[in-house]
Amino acid sequence: MSYCRQEGKDRIIFATKEDHETPSSAELVADDPDDPYEEQGLILPNGDINWNCPCLGGMASGPCGEQFKSAFSCFHYSTEEIKGSDCVDQFRAMQECMQKYPDLYPQEDENDEKSSKDLEAASVEASAAKEEKGSS
């Protein structure tokens, strides 16, 4: 004979062998893409950014969260030929913010610093090329 009992915050359910022999009559409901509790990836079905995605590692909610969101949104929605080349200012603002919190956002080591400078130089070049293209 199966039964339930409550012990404090716990609910204990005892089921018999006969209970488990009967096939379940539960019906599975199709996934609702608009369910806010359903785990989603980085990009939601409607194309928006899922700021709650664990893949962002909390970047969207830290002290530089607004700068991160601005830069990431700009990149995501960028339609430039060199994707994100119109987002240099937003990424620079995010980088400046992160430099104010070195404990939360550790700086790169010397080897990574060189690649960071190369990336920044490429961004500046892309920005200059965009301005030159726009003025001709």
Detailed description of the structure:
- Residues 29-38 have a biased composition (Acidic residues).
- It holds the Pfam family CHCH.
- The structure is a single chain.
- By secondary structure, the chain is mostly helical.
- It has a domain at 63-109: Helix Hairpins (Orthogonal Bundle).
- The protein is built from four helices and two strands; from the N terminus they run ββαααα.
- Strands 1-2 form a two-stranded antiparallel ribbon.
- α2 packs antiparallel against α3.
- It starts with a strand and ends with a helix.
- The relative contact order is 0.07.
- The mean pLDDT is 78.
What's the layout of helices and strands?
Blueprint: E1 3-7, E2 10-14, H1 17-21, H2 65-77, H3 88-99, H4 110-135
Antiparallel strand pairs: 1-2
Helix pairs in contact: 2-3
Features:
Helix Hairpins, two-stranded antiparallel sheet, 136 residues, elongated, mainly alpha, single chain
Q: CATH class of the domain at 63-109, anyone?
A: Mainly Alpha
Oligomer: single chain
Report the end-to-end length measured between terminal Cα atoms. Answer: 85 Å
- The percentage helix is 40-55%
Mean pLDDT: 78
CATH topology of the domain at 63-109: Helix Hairpins
Largest pleated sheet: 2 strands, antiparallel
Number of strands: 2
Q: Per CATH, which architecture of the domain at 63-109?
A: Orthogonal Bundle
Supply the number of helical segments: 4
In N-to-C order, the SSE pattern is EEHHHH
Proportion of residues in β-strands: 5-15%
- Radius of gyration from the CA trace? 25 Å
What coarse outline follows from CA principal-axis ratios?
elongated
Secondary-structure content class:
mainly alpha
Keywords: Disulfide bond, Mitochondrion, Oxidoreductase, Protein transport, Redox-active center, Translocation, Transport
Protein name: MIA40 protein
GO cellular component, one term: mitochondrial intermembrane space
Domain CHCH: 64-100
